[in-house]
Design a protein that fits this description.
It is a single chain. This protein is of the alpha/beta class. It folds into 2 domains: 142 residues, Rossmann fold (3-Layer(aba) Sandwich); 63 residues. The protein is 38% helix and 12% strand. The protein has 8 helices and 8 strands. It starts with 6 loop residues before the first strand and ends in a 10-residue tail after the last strand.
């Protein structure tokens, strides 16, 4: 019988919050500025969890060796920062999960690779900033996921051993980071997985098809 987690940690984009529409709009604003047609949301969605670098590869077929790559990427982030929470919301059922955790005095937190200058206004806008017991961003520690440092920092912030926490994420790097930290991990199959992702091969402790299924683990 698995032990009940004493805390739950969430990845942000694609696990806790559905931020895809706002990131997709930012990318298409950038493309419009360059006189390019918008990409369908269904095309952009699977790339959202992988951040601005992945969106640049998708939107422009550029990598960081290209001369104007960083200029365009920063412009993308400016568009996103300027309208960071127009449509971003908790995934359906997630509010009930957070409410249950709070009712049971089980702390929950966020471990994301999104930098603090984007994470902080987003969480404030959706009303989660004061509710999360800890928020570890992509620049909180020297190394981001898939390195375990962010998850280890979160467990220290909560005063718990990594094994006493449960992490939930929607990308292979989330599973890798949790495994390296010695933390149980679930894959959020409702997140931004792409057609080539094979989450059953990532070595997670389990998976959930919807946020409410997390209650069975608690």
């Amino acid at each position: 019988m698995r032990p009940t987690p004493r805390a739950v940690l969430f990845d942000l984009d694609g696990t806790l919050l559905d931020t895809g529409p706002d990131l997709a709009r930012a990318l298409n604003r950038l493309r419009a500025e360059d006189q390019l047609d918008p990409l369908p949301y269904a095309t952009i969605r699977p790339w959202v969890s992988h951040g601005s670098h992945a969106l640049m590869r998708l939107g422009y077929d550029l990598d960081d060796t290209s001369a104007d790559y960083e200029t365009r990427r920063q412009r993308l982030l400016e568009f996103y920062h300027g309208d960071v929470a127009a449509e971003s919301r908790l995934f359906a059922g997630m509010e009930a999960v957070l409410a249950r955790l709070e009712e049971n005095a089980t702390p929950w937190g966020i471990v994301t690779n999104k930098p603090a200058w984007l994470t902080t206004p987003l969480l404030a806008a959706v009303g989660l900033a004061a509710r999360a017991a800890c928020v570890i961003c992509g620049d909180t520690t020297a190394r981001a996921k898939p390195h375990p440092d962010p998850l280890l920092a979160a467990s220290r912030a909560l005063g718990l051993a990594p094994a006493a926490c449960l992490y939930v994420g929607d990308a292979e790097r989330d599973v890798s980071a949790a495994a390296a930290a010695g933390m149980p991990v679930l894959v959020a199959l409702y997140g931004y997985l792409g057609p080539h992702d094979v989450p059953h091969e990532w070595g997670a402790d389990g998976s959930i098809d919807a946020p409410l299924e997390l209650l069975h683990w608690l």
